Amino acid sequence: MEVPLERLTSPPDGCYGGRLMADYVGVTDGDLARAVAETAGQAEEAESELYRRFASRVRFYGLRHLRDEDAALDLAQQVMLLTIEKLRSGAIRDADQIGSFILGASRTMTIDLKRRERRRERLRDVFVVEPLASAPHDDTSLDLDRLGACLGQLPERERLVMLLTFYAERSARQVGDELTITEGNVRVIRHRAIGRLRACMTGTGGVQ
Amino acid sequence: MTPQCDAPVSDDDLLDYWIHAIDGTDAERIEEHLFGCAACSARFEAMASLGVGLVELVRRGRIGGIVTRSLLNRLQREGVHVRQYVLSPGERVPCAAFPDDDLVVLSLRADFAGSQAVTIALLGADDTLIDQVSDVAVGPKDIEILWATPGDIIRRMPSSRRRVTVRSQSTHPTVLAEYELDHTALPVTGSE
Q: Given phi > 0 = left and psi -120 to 50 = alpha, else beta, which region is A167?
């Protein structure tokens, strides 16, 4: 029986029907794609592993280009469904290029999503519709309380560089111009700050 | 176990890619690498997750400390409700955070000429130290320091008077300016 596409999600415990994710160590992306293509709908484990490897990459690609969590998640679902469908139907000739195929699909769908969003914005300009409710803010996978505490422990200069970098999306040169420090210094500060935040978030070290 | 990468993209380039400081063909080259490399993807996703979280914190007004004028302008443009109090040296201002205020910002004005860094202290009754920010860089052209506090924190503060001092950081620190925050004139809002 063919595996329904909507069942393709990452397993919560890293286990696919008794087979551990560790079983796929050393299995290339191309091998997985071939397994999916050659067994057309019968390779549930290989499909799930392919999804696990790439859905997150597509999501972050979407976040980078769309800056919208919901849109990025939709993109990941659509791209991965398309990929599995194409593999099952034999439409992807070179399985070793599966990463390139997924990237290409991500690019095409992102352009389409941006076009649709622009169209929606034009419509909103014509027909002003008040939102019925605010969107919930529970879509980030990070522990925001912890991140806030970790950020608060950073030295003032590092904290400000982090905000200008990630929130204002300023380059190292722009941050340097704003804070009257060199671009090289900004790169050192942000590298150190990211390391400290990571260590604080993973509990491998507090912010000193 | 994440496989090794023979030609890893540097953390610096991954960050520049994420914030669009790298675009065009250079960005495409990084994307092609990320879609073929689990190790670099994992590093990129960990870094980008921090970025996503930081942006979310900022949008909720859950940041404290020194901010720049450009950062403050951007926050306001993007809908963060900011209440700003402008203080000249020696001035006392009645201050409070209202229910909609995400962020309260003190614009501390002073003459910073001759100073490269200052320490800002928030003092309570009997000059007890409540909060302090050190190593705040200032330049000769600066006329203000913007000190942000989440509205939630201000709303939880008891009715009180607070003093803020700005001191130069040197072997002989001097007080550049003092201000008084009167948190008693308005009814306390929020949960308390």
A: alpha
What is the phi/psi pair of residue A194, to 5°?
-65, -40
Same domain membership, residue A117 and residue A50: yes
Q: Does A170 touch chain B (CB under 8 A)?
A: yes
Nearest CA in chain A to B64: A152
- Shared domain for A27 and A91, answered yes or no, is yes
Say what the pLDDT of residue A128 is: 55
Four-residue CA torsion sign, B62, B66, B72, B74: negative
* CATH entry, B63-183, from 1.10.150, 1.20.120, 1.10.286, 2.60.40: 2.60.40
The residues spanned by each domain of chain B are 11-57, 63-183
Output the six-digit token pair for A193: 């700050």
Structure tokens at B98: 């209202």
List, for residues A60-112, the tens digit of each pLDDT value. Answer: 999 999 999 999 999 999 999 999 999 999 999 899 999 999 999 999 999 99
The CA–CA distances, whole Å, from B166 to A69, B31, B95, B120, B145 equal 41, 47, 19, 5, 10
Q: Do the Cβ atoms of B137 and A180 come within 8 Å?
A: yes
Q: How big is chain B, counted in residues?
A: 192
Q: Which residues pair with B66 in a beta bridge?
A: B147
**ipTM score here?**
0.88
Greatest C-alpha distance within chain A: 65
A53 and B38: CB-CB below 8 Å?
yes
Q: Residue B9 is which amino acid?
A: V
